[in-house]
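To the structural biology subgroup,

Please find below the input and predicted structure for Glycosyltransferase involved in cell wall bisynthesis, which we are adding to the shared reference set this quarter. The sequence is reproduced verbatim from the submission form. If anyone notices a discrepancy with their own records, reply to this email rather than editing the shared folder directly, so we keep one authoritative version.
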Amino acid sequence: MRIAQIAPLTEAVPPKLYGGTERVVSFLTEELVAMGHDVTLFASGDSVTRAKLEAVWPRALRLDPTIRDFMGPHMLLMERVRQMAHEFDVLHFHMDYWPASLFSRQGVPFVTTLHGRLDLPELRPVFAGLPPMSVVSISDSQRLPLPEANFIATIHHGLPEYLLTPRPTTQDYVAFLGRICPEKRPDRAIRIARAAGVNLRLAAKVDRADIDYHESTIKPMLGPDADLIGEIDDRNKPEFLSGAKALLMPIDWPEPFGLVMIEAMACGTPVIAYGHGSVPEIIEDGVTGFIVNSEEEAVAALRRIDDLSRTRIRAEFERRFTARRMAEDYLDTYERLMVPKSDRLRLVG
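Predicted structure (tokenized):
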């Protein structure tokens, strides 16, 4: 199959450090290539892939201090894909609602994976006013605020099977992985770890938008028992997660997926998470972690974390969250899109 993967230009594919969407695009692209498909990746020029790279912009916009208008390069990306669309059997976008207007006017099947939160009030009139397009959700819970969108599948993310693996080490701290921002609630993580008498290591970035939150709320809470070590990449995650008694994910928002949960599972590390958004779809309570509703419940869960089998957690990752499973799910979706519309309606009816 001739497949185009179209990624945002903000980060490279894969990203140099933080960047969940671009990491998933990379995992999917490389797995499709490994399965023998003819894949072209539309992305920034500093991306690394075994697919054909169509470099629309020289480098990731986030890493280019000269870029002030992020919209311009993305408009160029849309036009480049339009010019080449006839070369593909299917176009797979990872750019929210951007493709709806332009690509609904041409004949090549296309689909968009929605990677972000859908509970923003401006999205309902946008989706209502644009031509309908086929979209994939990354969890069933992600769909709830936007039922009018044309969801054709829910496909959970996956990781390459051996990208992150358990390492033999002593577990002597709990981990927080991701971003320092209000909705991720690192403040809760710090309080939970302290109440349980366990050291916390925070491997997290601080975006410019969250500097005030970090300075006013998180920085004063740090200390010898709560250490902010900064961003880490995939090379450092196996040791970091394997050395943790648990990953703390005390979120305060409707998480669309939460890649860090399956990263922890890949290392055999249980997850203690608040039950918002996708969490109940990803974590099996009492098997791969504990779903909690308060700091007190999280502390209690941490005190019985050794009851969970790290071997079983890794096995559940292999069963449910590999990149191969993700790629197979997307291939099923592509094949359904390639059926003529009249036949699709007949098959559905």
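Summary notes: The domain at 2-158+323-348 is CATH 3.40.50.2000 (Rossmann fold). Confidence is low (pLDDT under 50) at residues 344-349.

Regards,
Lab coordination
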